[in-house]
TrEMBL record:
PANTHER family: PURINE EFFLUX PUMP PBUE, PURINE RIBONUCLEOSIDE EFFLUX PUMP NEPI. Gene3D superfamilies: MFS general substrate transporter like domains (1.20.1250.20). Residues 1-388 form the Major facilitator superfamily (MFS) profile domain. It holds the Pfam family MFS_1. One of its GO terms (cellular component) is plasma membrane. GO terms for molecular function: transmembrane transporter activity. The keyword Membrane applies. It is a multi-pass membrane protein. The keyword Transmembrane applies. Keywords: Cell membrane, Membrane, Transmembrane, Transmembrane helix. This is MFS transporter.
Length: 394
């Protein structure tokens, strides 16, 4: 249960720490999904198929899933500030390994290390935000943190595609390393001491998972993110094969998608509040509809740009909507709830990359996008009006 004495007031809320966490989010997102914008040259450089190289994302998802479930137990009594610093250091090590990777095996190993960082950080992030700011400011803090996601979505993919075309894909990963090093220093300065609040056993995670309303929401989150990343992981092959883009237009379209994410983050921070359960199905509904529309209109660069802008805005809103739901419906066990949410999200990213890659290699990129649409339909059907995802009133 949240200790009232530990809740900061508005005057001493750690907004510098919130911004430090936001930068870490941006770098995590950039590191995790940079292979999306560099998929084709990475595959060529490592002598692997595009579908196989896409598994570099799925392997990070696999290890992120495991880390998210184990981090609160494994971290034990360690101060959460020290845990976050250690995880950021792991991200730095992973990027260096990717940049020098001589073969596919080293790449996969580096991505596994990154997955540990991703799973651990995200599992703790919402619970940390709930300790940094007053309860009423949590949606705002989350929207700022996910603003880091919007920044990464806006600039990482297009810059990665553009710079990778000029300097090579390895140079792109090298360029991220000084930014992560600076973020590591910022964590040391800005994050307050965050002592562990008792040792959490794995049984607490199981107890939270047994809550029917939370389990339904968890499955809905998996379907929503699974749909999104079945499409997003293989967006570059779609744009190259169906839209027929060159490197410059590819960068422009990815930039459009990313910049739209700022609008999604702003709208989510402003409008997610009371009655947010009605918004739970909106991301899957909109992004699934966009993916379906791309199948039929993807040959037009203009139509594709408009649709990707809509998709990008809703993609960043997705995180704020579901994490706000988690913070308000598992507020008695935020670390356990966060662990399960991150495990569900990373599991869906893993499955999305695997399923999408198999469909791409066995059938076509159209089949990959059709699989994403099917997952979105399932999410919307499960969520309904969102009432069954709310904890019972006391």
């Amino acid at each position: 249960m949240t200790d009232a004495a530990a809740i900061p007031t508005r005057s001493n809320a750690q907004w510098g720490a919130v911004l430090s966490m936001s930068l870490c989010v941006a770098l995590l997102i950039a590191s995790e999904f940079m292979p999306v914008s560099l998929l084709t040259p990475m595959a060529a450089g490592l002598g692997a198929s595009e579908g196989a190289t896409g598994q570099a994302i799925s392997i990070s998802g696999l290890f992120a899933l495991a880390a998210s479930l184990l981090i609160t137990t494994a971290a034990g009594q360690f101060n959460r500030k020290l845990v976050l610093i250690a995880l950021t250091a792991l991200m730095l090590a992973s990027l260096v390994m990717v940049a020098v990777a001589p073969n596919f095996t080293v790449l996969i190993t580096a991505r596994a290390i990154l997955g540990i960082c991703i799973g651990g950080f995200w599992a703790l992030a919402t619970a940390v935000m709930m300790r940094l700011v007053p309860p009423g400011e949590v949606p705002k803090a989350l929207s700022i943190m996910y603003g880091g996601q919007a920044i990464a979505a806006a600039f990482a993919a297009p810059l990665g595609a553009y710079l990778g075309d000029i300097f090579g894909w390895r140079a792109v990963f090298w360029a991220l390393t000084p930014l992560v090093a600076l973020n590591l220093i910022w964590h040391l300065i800005a994050l307050p001491s965050l002592p562990a609040r008792g040792r959490q056993s794995f049984g607490v995670v199981i107890e939270v998972l047994r809550r029917p309303y939370f389990l339904r929401g968890l499955i809905a989150a998996m379907l929503s993110w699974g749909s999104a990343f079945t499409m997003f992981t293989y967006l570059r092959p779609f744009l190259e094969q169906v839209t027929g883009v060159n490197a410059t237009l590819l960068s422009i379209l990815l930039l459009v998608l990313g910049i739209a994410g700022f609008a999604g983050t702003w709208a989510a921070g402003r409008f997610v509040g009371e009655g947010f359960e009605r918004l739970l199905k909106l991301p899957a509904l909109v992004m699934g509809g966009v993916t379906l529309a791309l199948i039929f209109t993807g040959s037009s660069p203009l139509a594709t740009g408009i649709l990707l802008a809509i998709w990008g805005a809703m993609n960043t809103a997705l995180s704020v909507i579901f994490m706000t739901w988690m913070s308000q419906n598992v507020d008695d066990q935020p670390e356990a709830g966060g662990s399960l949410m991150v495990a569900a999200i990373q599991g869906s990213i893993l499955l999305g990359a695997v399923i999408g890659g198999l469909l791409l290699d066995a059938l076509s990129i159209t089949a990959t996008f059709a699989g994403a649409v099917a997952l979105a339909v399932a999410a919307v059907a499960l969520i309904g009006n969102g009432q069954r995802m709310l904890k019972p009133a006391n």
